[in-house]
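Discussion board: Methods & Data

I've been asked by a reviewer to show the raw model output for two of the constructs in my manuscript, not just the figures. I'm not sure how much to include, so I'm pasting the format here to get opinions. Each protein appears as its amino acid sequence followed by a line of discrete structure tokens. Is this the kind of thing reviewers expect to see in a supplement, or should I convert it first? Here is construct A:
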Amino acid sequence: MKKSTLFSTVVLFAIFFGTLFSCKKTAQTSTQLVFDSIVVKEQIPLLETNDTTLPFADVKVSFTYPVKFGNKEDLARLQQIFVGTFFNSLNLDTLSPREAVDAYLADYKKEYKSLSNTYYSEKSQLPKGETPMWYWYYMYNTNKVMFQNDSLLGYAVEYSDYTGGAHGSYRITYTNIDLAELTTVSEEDIFVPNYKKPLTEIIINRLMAQHHVTVPDSLINLGFFDLDELIPNNNFWLSDKGIHYSYNQYEIAPYSMGVIDVDIPYENLSAILKPDNVIQKFFPTK
């Protein structure tokens, strides 16, 4: 029943596609950023049995993280950010990438197997021969780089899972790292104080343009939730073209509409960008 494959492949390329850059944190020394990947594929049986017809959790984790960057302290900090954001846990970001993967999967396995306490009781309430199908779980987690240059690294973490209920879920989160300071970038680093209302208006205008409508109420007719509740959600990645937001399922629209992406060119944001903001640092020509 149980199939497990665990392998690690060193990805010998600079920032995924062979880019070399100079980093302030490493005394302006040209530093190659090298990644390693831990990939786990495993089927976790709910019950202690070899019966392959019984429920299991299908698990696939593909975690790419840096193994070479600057000095030892720089690398440790960068790995800490990757671990903390991939597993969405401050309890794991003090662990090495391998230890974090092992701890995360051990917790998942423990939680999933605890469901065996209710499996037989729920099965007994169904017609003879039927099995509660909601015990077949899955979890697929991965990450990928969205943008990089000599001072910025932005990446996405994608989560897809089923934990019972009518359907599974998918969500995506973004992290932008200032490679000179080794800190993450938030909306407050980019925009002036009291930016949320004007930024919300910009987001709604971009949604209207992307959906080819001219008034906000038309978005509601397309399925969007109450626009009065739409706010910037800090879930974005930066590129040389603009800022790219994503709203996950149920944030501003129903599950059936999936993840909603909103792309905003920098020229649309000029009125609310901070003086000397990080955009100018990452993209000096903007």
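Construct B, same format:
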Amino acid sequence: MTDNTPKSALELAMERLRQKDKESNAPERPLTDEQKAGIAEVRQMYQAKTAEHEILHQAALRKAGSHEEVAQLNEALRRDTERMVGERDRKIAAIREGGEHMAKGRSMQKEKKKPKKEKK
């Protein structure tokens, strides 16, 4: 029996991507826990950056004196958002493609940043 409920746009997109992967014989590799954590960290960081830019944009809009300034500010926000989305997507793709060595490299970088406690 099939479920006759309508599918969401996400479900339809995922079906198309799975079909495309099957056609190109792309191997299916589940993400490791480190990769999932790395991807979540990247998404969270860029979500925060986007929120920060939006707050600064709103403040700048309040100070804008003309329609031209508003248009320039909106265009700058659009460019910055596109750039950040591209950066985020490249970093996520690198984590996905990099496999475990990418995830291990990320965790090693974190360990280097932690200050060592001295024993007395």
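Answer (T.O., handling editor elsewhere):
This is acceptable in a supplement if you add a one-line summary per construct. For B, something like: The chain has three helices and no strands.
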